[in-house]
Design brief:
Layout: H1 2-12, E1 43-44, E2 50-52, E3 59-63, E4 66-71, E5 74-78, E6 86-88, H2 95-98, H3 123-127, H4 129-134, H5 170-177, H6 185-193, H7 224-234
Antiparallel strand pairs: 1-2, 2-3, 3-4, 4-5, 5-6
Length: 245
């Protein structure tokens, strides 16, 4: 009886702060407080290989083939825009995700107050001296050497509502339609843990035969190469042929 009461209280504490948002984690019956019912608008963070979702009331990003959410002092990731979300240890968060400036967090926690908007969060201060020592220099990098952003998996736009795939269906659909090989070792590890196969060397192909057209505003960067290839295929693959949207 005592366990039941404690569990009920814990679940009540997870009530979403934003009414329009609630996504499930990879734990049955548990919510991290975000819901993304349709494929979100994703906009590049200038100068970073990361996208953010300006219209969601959540700290929601896309980097190197995966979605990343920072919610209630914890990081989660998923290969699909509405989860299920798996928790990610602070040690395994890609540095380019950690480097995203404070201003791109749409629901910043209280402890972000007072931090410069154009600087990354003070993760070393927040997570402590040991983490900071193990990740010395994480916030110092050559901005001219940043990798290009991964193409967005816009094929997922056609999967919403009742069409949104179950967790067992997601890896095969993602591999068949996206075909991108993550560059970041931490992202590769996430793919392996979730059983998502990748196509080696397919860094530039963004979607497969089930893909939908690009989303428009903010979506061109990082998608052009993959979508251009699709258009060539649809129009017969002729090089130098003009394409009209």
């Amino acid at each position: 009886m005592r366990f039941t009461i404690v569990l009920a209280c814990a679940l009540m504490s997870l009530t979403p702060a934003m009414g329009q948002v609630s996504v499930s984690v990879a734990v049955p019956g548990l919510s991290i407080g975000i819901n993304v019912p349709t494929y979100p608008e994703l906009v590049p963070v200038p100068g970073y290989p990361v996208y953010y979702a300006p219209r969601l009331g959540a700290n929601y990003f896309f980097y190197d083939g995966m979605y990343w959410v920072y919610q209630r002092d914890a990081w989660y990731s998923s290969a699909w825009y509405n989860g299920p979300w798996g928790p990610v240890r602070a040690e395994a968060i890609p540095v380019f995700v950690l480097r995203v400036p404070v201003r791109y967090y749409r629901l910043p926690p209280v402890y972000f107050r007072g931090w410069r908007q154009d600087d990354p969060p003070h993760w070393g201060e927040h997570w402590g001296h040991d983490w900071d020592q193990r990740h010395a220099g994480w916030d110092k990098w050559d901005r001219g050497a940043a990798p290009p952003p991964a193409p967005l998996p816009v094929y997922q736009r056609q999967y919403s509502g009742k069409r949104y795939p179950s967790e067992p269906e997601q890896p095969e659909l993602h591999s068949r339609n996206y075909g991108y090989e993550p560059r970041d070792p931490n992202v590769k590890q996430q793919y392996e843990e979730r059983g998502i196969p990748v196509a080696p060397g397919e860094h530039g192909r963004s979607q497969g035969k089930d893909a939908s057209p690009g989303q428009g505003h903010g979506q061109g960067q990082g998608q052009g190469q993959g979508q251009g290839q699709e258009k060539d295929n649809e129009k017969g693959g002729g090089r130098g042929q003009d394409h009209k949207d």
